[in-house]
Every structure is written in structure tokens, then in C-alpha cells.
Specification:
This protein is α/β, with parallel strands linked by helices and about 290 residues long. The chain has one domain: 3-Layer(aba) Sandwich (Rossmann fold). About 55% of the residues lie in helices and about 10% in strands. The protein has 15 helices and seven strands. The protein has a five-stranded parallel β-sheet with strand order 5-4-3-6-7, with helices on both faces. Helix 2 runs antiparallel to helix 10, helix 5 packs across helix 6 and helix 6 crosses helix 9. It is globular. It starts with 5 loop residues before the first strand and ends with a helix. About 45% of the residues are buried.
């Protein structure tokens, strides 16, 4: 199944993406959110798939659905030794009998990848580079293991209200729609499509399924965030699928932090004589 944002193996123009999301705001959902999510996963897993697995609620829900559907899949987790994501991923995989592959990275390996990502994106934007480094290495790991169709949790934060800006908004669903129309294309889709093209893989994004977006956005915003807890509908689905409460309620940790890659880049920057990580990235860009 081809994703909404892909046409002829390329990312659609931003104005086309905006128009599509704007149209969805006027369409009524046809499914309950849990069934829409299950269908979205099933439609994207007609052949064996890899799953980028952090142990967070997004990737864990996808894993439990894949298992429920008896789909051939493998989970992939990466990080430096002792990283929070890998620790959680390993515990959840053991508890739920998930096939998990783990890869640990050294500073030297991460430094090499940072140079690669800076070259690909030709930017010194630290967030894009640090997140891109994690996504690239996780996807490359899956590709090396024979998986070119790779599921990710991209889109979950936007449709279920997972970011700080959702917690701080007076109108959570309005902020969700704004994220879908004005943020995700530039911040996430450009990055991931570029990485997918570089690695000759396909990212599958169930949380950006048309029917799931409509279903999730039909849930009142006040039901998505309560008492500083975000993504409540998705956490409820996780509990229904059998995930333990301590994992279902786990606070979001951005990929660069949960993997330990951010800390690694900070160490590399200091070794290179830079006070700030952003200065190190700018130096890398200047030498390309």
C-alpha cells in the first residue's frame, strides 16, 4: 500500500499534502479508532515487515497488532549501551515474545553517520540531523537484516496529541490539525522520504492512514490529554491489547534522547573541541 504522501516514489508537494489534510477535516470517519488502526497496520503488512521499535507506546502498539494478526515481522532497536529505549524494548520483547534485534553503536560509528546525514540533508539544523541519524541507522539495520518494508510510528503524536504544544493548547484538536497541515511535511516527511530513497526502502506509516486520521480526529481533544498525560486513546488501546500499564503510560522520549545518540553527539562535539553540538554540526557541514 502506497502512503498518502507518496506519488511515483517521491514526496508529494507541500501544497498537495495540505489540500489533502484539509479535505480530511470535512470527511466523517467510517471506523472506530482501534479498528481503523488495526486495518491500517494490516493493509501495510501484506509481506514480511520490519518494525522500528523503541519500547514506546507507538511502536509497541504496532508490534502487538502485528502479533495479533499473525504477520511475519521483526523488531529493530538501536542505541548506545545503556540507552533507555533499548532497555525498554528488550523488556517488552521478552514479556510479549517479540522477535527483537538490537544493535549498539560506538562514538566512532555515530560520528561517521552524522557526517553521512549532514551530507544527505545539507543542513546544520541539529534536530533534523540528530533525529535523522537515529532513523537512518535503524532503517539501515533493518535493511541489512533483509527488511525493505519498515513500519514506523510517525504521525501518532500529531493525531493523538503527543507533543508539549498539544498539552499547552486551549484547543488540542485544532493544534493536531495544524501539526498535520503545517508541521509534519517539512519536519518529518521530507526527512524520512529522503532517508528511504537513500536506503532503497519503504517506510510504512499506519498512523498517517487516511481512515485512522479521520477516526482519531473525531475524538474530542479533551479526551486525548488529561492531567498532563498525552495520547490517552492510544494508551487505552495499548492496555486493551495486553500491554502492562507501566509501559502503556510511559512518557514520550524523543528518538535522539531515548537512543542515547544525542548524548553521543555531545561527547563527540566536546572531543572535537566544540562547546555546543550545533557548532560541531555546522563544522561538519562546512567541510562537505
Amino acid at each position: 500500500m502506497q502512503e498518502l504522501y507518496i506519488k511515483n516514489n517521491n514526496l508529494i508537494p507541500e501544497n498537495e499534502w495540505r489540500s489533502m489534510i484539509n479535505r480530511l477535516q470535512n470527511e466523517k470517519p467510517t471506523k472506530q479508532v482501534k479498528q481503523a488502526l488495526i486495518d491500517a497496520v494490516n493493509q501495510r503488512a501484506k509481506q514480511k515487515v520490519g518494525l522500528l521499535f523503541s519500547g514506546g507506546v507507538d511502536s509497541t502498539v504496532l508490534a502487538l497488532i502485528l502479533k495479533q494478526l499473525n504477520i511475519d515481522f521483526k523488531c529493530f532497536a538501536i542505541g548506545i549501551r545503556g540507552s533507555k529505549d533499548v532497555q525498554k524494548a528488550e523488556k517488552i520483547a521478552q514479556k510479549h515474545n517479540l522477535d527483537l534485534k538490537i544493535k549498539y553503536y560506538t562514538l566512532k560509528q555515530i560520528q561517521k553517520t552524522v557526517k553521512k546525514i549532514v551530507k544527505i540533508f545539507e543542513t546544520s539544523n541539529y534536530i533534523r540531523i540528530s533525529v535523522g541519524t537515529v532513523v537512518y541507522e535503524a532503517a539501515k539495520f533493518a535493511k541489512q537484516e533483509g527488511y525493505s518494508n519498515i513500519l514506523t510510528g510517525l504521525g501518532s503524536e500529531e493525531i493523538f496529541g503527543g507533543y508539549r504544544r498539544h498539552k499547552e493548547s486551549d484547543n488540542i484538536n485544532k493544534e493536531c490539525w495544524r501539526g498535520l497541515t503545517d508541521v509534519i511535511w517539512r519536519r518529518d516527511l521530507q526527512r524520512d522520504v529522503k532517508i528511504a530513497q537513500e536506503l532503497s526502502i519503504e517506510f510504512k506509516t499506519p498512523f498517517l492512514d487516511k481512515e485512522l486520521i479521520k477516526s482519531a480526529m473525531s475524538i474530542p481533544g479533551k479526551e486525548k490529554v488529561k492531567n498532563k498525560i498525552s495520547k490517552i486513546p492510544l494508551r487505552q488501546i495499548a492496555l486493551e491489547l495486553g500491554l502492562e500499564k507501566k509501559y502503556a503510560m510511559r512518557k514520550k522520549i524523543a528518538a535522539q534522547y531515548g537512543s542515547g545518540f544525542d548524548k553521543a553527539i555531545e561527547k563527540i562535539a566536546k572531543i572535537k573541541g566544540f562547546k555546543y553540538k550545533s557548532d560541531y554540526i555546522a563544522e561538519v557541514l562546512s567541510k562537505i
